[in-house]
Amino acid sequence: MSRPTSIKLPPHLTLQPTHQSTDLKGRRRSGSIVKVEEVGGRVEEMLDRNAYANINANWVNAKGAWLIHVVLVFTGKIIIDTIPGMTQQISWTLVNLIYLALSYLMFHWVTGIPFDNELHGGAYDDLTLWEQIDDGAQYTPSKKWLFTAPILLFLASTHYTNYNPWLFAVNLTALICFAIIPKLPQLHRQRVRFLAQDASGMATPVTPSFSHSDKAGILDPSSITDAHFQ
Amino acid sequence: MDSSASTLEPLLAFLAYSSSKLESTFYKIPGSAVVARYVKSSHQNDPGRTILELILVIFAIRTLLQSRTRADRSGKNFIKFSEKEIDELVDEWTPEPLTQPLTEWDQRDLSSVPIISGPSGPKPKILATGKTVTNLASFNFAGLAGNEHIKERAVDTLRKYGLGSCGPPGFYGTIDVHLDLERDIAEFLGTEASILYSQGFSTISSVIPAFCKRGDIIVADRSVNFAIQKGIQISRSTVRWFDHNDLKSLEDALQSVDKERKKRKAPLTRRFIITEGIFERDGEMVDLPKLIELKFKYKYRLILDESISFGTVGRTGRGLTELYNVPASQIDMLVGSVANGLCSAGGFCAGSSIVVDHQRINAPSFVFSASMPALLATSASEAITHLRNTPSVLATLQENIRALRAVLEKTEGITLLGHRASPIVHFSLRSTSNTLVVPSSAPAFDAETEERVLQDIVDDALANGVLLTRAKHLKGQEMIESRPTIRIAVSAAFTKKEVEKAAAVVKASVGRVLSRRR
């Protein structure tokens, strides 16, 4: 499993100012600070994924995997309540934030698969668990449950306590930022990159004297898709 | 005022009546009091929060009600037809021909390939006209094609072992002559061991995926041949291309890979440099000592494809390592072609015994293809002995190359490509003078027209007794579209006079065709 180098931002924070960087040799590929790019969509990666069933993502369809959320939240709340000097507001906020943090870490941060990596030849190395569930289909039952669970937790927490406005804002923003936005189908396999330089390893900095043959139509071998053979 | 108030009054009365009716019916539903109490206590006299929560609830319900989309596989693009539509489409269907009819250019291309009667050699006989022509198209660098001694040995082997090897090398297909040839090649080159593949073209595209996996880094030359491109594509590694035969660009690429890795704090993966000894596309030769120096400096492994240079350069034909006096053990995987250099069939990969043993299990072409027939293996072994014993063959080859290039350099209207010691000589049409005024640094070429002109030259040369060929590439499937060229493969089987005569014919053909065009 490998760590991705990007942070997923809410879309309203992605600006496009022109930013000239001076530390690169050759041409700068893009002028923006933040860039959204698709990952894991190449033909050969899709083929490698479909060769075998992905047991690393199928477990979320099991009944126990749905129930465990409820069980863990209950246990967590009880444990946090035992800490001396805990008020209900802080307790619910903590439960909320810890649940969101852990579920974000598990579903949206870590990429790759721990088991059966040899079978898939590294095709899942760029995909988070959320993107692997159900082979990338959206609005499946497991995804609907995982989507609803933090919302239900949040609503329960606002029902049982009376948050002051700050804590309410904190909880709500955390919910939107860490639970709702990453799970949206529009962000499927997209990554937000800061100060992206050079596309993922496909081109070198161009030296002043490139050969004539380069001008006449460079085809990247990895861009050859099924369409070329039809 | 009065009239508007009077029209609004019944409306307001109706609204009040309907809301009270709704309320009473709502409270009649069992459990409604619970819901009402829940909503009241949730509301907590804060309408702002309630609205936000309501929005959340509506969003959640909307998500729950969405239907499932298709998975990422190609099923996404399937259209679902109804039964009637399917029946209609089936009734309307008329079969298309298996292949599209050939275009005029394709037909001409196909018919321009001459048929030779008898075995191929330095002077084959064309079936259609019955004339003998000088063969400057087939790879016969050391003049081993049709060598009588090798033929005798091959026939003996055929009598002893039969023809086929009946299986992949790992499964009853290895014969002792294969092991002998592997040992011969390893001793010839000075490496620890070598492994034999049965097809020269697929050798390099099998060696690369055996070692380079997804997540590894390959730095490759832009003009590598098609087999290498396919090997790189199969390997799924991250590729960086550097400019053709430009070691400065290679160094830049190596440095930028290093920088990227440090920036991302990524773990160290295997890194490879892939390049050819003599490039098949244009005959350039790589600067091997400098390449090795870079390889050691940045700690990369070198995969060198010596398909053209093995058996052709160096004092005894050992390839680039002999030419530059570099020990072959410094190249991690030395891939060569037995088909090109030794006029037999197949290819090999030479390296340390670990490299070779790894390929016996992990190289796709070795594991899944049948091994070469025994007679081809003994022919190759004989060819190696021949090269060892008569190094004058290579000297003749170099003389012939020099003679050919001397004549062709004086030809108007064409540019010679490649290194002056390369046995493959490419020439392309020189760009016409008016493009010198074009501001862009790279003059554009019209591939189709140039190909037609080159084909005219080839046909004209054939009519005058010299067999040439254009360099054929797969359009649209290679990574770069290079300029069309005519490829001449010089052979040591000719005398200097014959080579000069053939070159003069080519020169004359070029002159005739180009003057016709003008």
Walk me through the structure.
The complex is a heterodimer of chains A (230) and B (518). By secondary structure, chain A is mainly alpha-helical. Chain A is built from 8 helices and 2 strands, in the order βααααααααβ. Chain A has a two-stranded antiparallel sheet. Chain A is globular. Chain B has 3 domains: 58 residues, no CATH class; 168 residues, Aspartate Aminotransferase, domain 1 (Alpha-Beta Complex); 242 residues, Type I PLP-dependent aspartate aminotransferase-like (Major domain) (Aspartate Aminotransferase, domain 2, 3-Layer(aba) Sandwich), CATH 3.40.640. Helix content of chain B is 49%, strand content 12%. Chain B contains 20 helices and 15 strands. In chain B, strands 4-10-9-8-7-5-6 form a 7-stranded mixed beta sheet, with helices on both faces. In chain B, strands 11-12-15-14 form a 4-stranded antiparallel beta sheet, covered by helices on one side. A two-stranded antiparallel ribbon of chain B has the order 1-2. In chain B, strand 1 and strand 2 form a beta hairpin. In chain B, helix 18 runs parallel beside helix 20. Chain B is elongated and about 120 Å long. Chain B starts with a helix and ends with a helix. The mean pLDDT of chain B is 90. Chains A and B meet through helix 1, helix 7 and helix 8 of A and helix 2, helix 3, helix 10, strand 6 and helix 11 of B. Chain B: This is PLP-dependent transferase. Chain B: Keywords: Transferase. Chain B: It comes from Leucogyrophana mollusca.
